[in-house]
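Data availability (excerpt). All sequences and predicted token strings are deposited with the supplementary files. A representative entry, Glutathione transferase GstA, is shown inline so that the format can be inspected without opening the archive.
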Amino acid sequence: LFNSALPKEVRAIFREKLFRQFDFLQATLNEKTYLTGPSFSVADAYLFTVLGWCKFFSIPLERWPALLAYRETINARPAVQAALLAEASL
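Structure token line:
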């Protein structure tokens, strides 16, 4: 999906697989705030990063409202804001 050298048909297959994973995550995050339990984990940090990549590949997250809400929840964490500011200064 992220390799522009791949044929369009192959990227479409990867996109479809990614969307199925997002469907699963949508169902999961409809039921809870974080991926693996009641508190923030490294899995949440990674998913937040992956969701941020979607804008670079024209993947509209509006199809998954729970993922949008999740991204906003994670983005609002003070430590995440601090990390994003530190990253922007590099």
